[in-house]
Amino acid sequence: MADLDKMKNIVFQFISHDDAVVIQPLGKGHINDSYKVASAGNEYVLQRINHHIFQHVPELQDNIARVTSHIRAKLEEQGVTDIDRRVLTLVPTHEEALFYKDSSGDYWRMMDFIKESKSYDEINPELAYRAGMAFGDFQKMLADLPGEPLFETIPNFHNMEARLKTFRESVKANKAGRLHEVAGLVKEIEDRTDEMCKAERMHREGKLPKRTNHCDTKVNNILFDENDQVLCVVDLDTVMPGYVLSDFGDFVRTGANRGAEDDKNPDNIAVDLAIFEEYAKGYLKNAASFLTDTEIENLAFGAKLLTYMQTVRFLTDYIDGDTYYKIAYPDHNLVRTKAQFKLLQNLEENFDEMQRIVFDAAHR
Ligand code: GN1
Ligand code: MG
Known about the structure:
Blueprint: H1 4-14, E1 22-26, E2 33-39, E3 42-49, H2 57-77, E4 90-91, E5 100-101, E6 107-112, H3 125-142, H4 160-173, H5 183-191, H6 193-196, H7 198-204, E7 211-213, E8 222-224, E9 230-233, E10 240-242, H8 244-255, H9 273-287, H10 293-297, H11 299-320, H12 332-349, H13 351-362
Antiparallel strand pairs: 1-2, 2-3, 3-6, 4-6, 5-6, 7-10, 8-9
């Protein structure tokens, strides 16, 4: 953790001075740094925003404020009680700003910690059903967000064509001299490019719309309460326009994988079809009413696409010499790449069954 006095000074930009404040590291994000702050009987989450990756922090924070206040208004309309646990609440600085830039140029933000909440890295079919409903509801609530479209906090974030362009540049540059180790994986990626760029083609042809998406629907971005009911969706940095198949697919990639995202043992990795099925049922229960047939027909493809995209992103970072994702050991990005590629192969083997499951869930 950064120097404690420095951390305290940052915290007191947002809340009153307190000699007894407690600051502890929190969570396992790959990009931002998170801390839990306890002061005067209240708990908060403090985050250092990675501004090399999120290069427009004011716009990013503005997106989050718009999204959370829109959801808050919807929940109020629905007469939901306990609203402070159902949507994130940003804590402004004493100057009413949504972030604080410190003297070394780092950006910080604070929000209320959601009381008695927990997240899971592994779930069961019942929780998957609830998570599906939650992400469907999230998209539905944001469908009528007023005003300008949200700012694209990372341009072309889930654009496969753009990701492949960057990947090929990295392969060409071979900055870390690692290319000879990964030639087989590079070929596997190149063999699938045509299929994996299909969403971008369909969008250009007017066949696939963009909607307000979460764009980081990892299983651990859903908070549950003490009775395992969903409280809310968190990690709103990447909420922006995208294809619904992306959000569907990223949940399957993380929540329906029997292994870990960075599992060293390929035998652990396979799609759990019971989780896939319950997630699809929950999601479609809330989303079927606003989705087109084409979107529904491509949900299972989304699982392959997002797993492929993550394979490409981890491999790109490995080839570049680990400049994007935090790593815990030297070949972590290579281990992640292989684990994601194994999952992709398994999704390919199970694809027909996944299509059938989505079809049945949509026609219940
Ligand atoms: C990053 O930091 P985290 O874990 O929320 C990444 C996602 C990836 C994910 C892979 C801004 O999310 O896109 O899918 O790691 N976020 C960004 O685990 O790149
Ligand atoms: Mg994230």
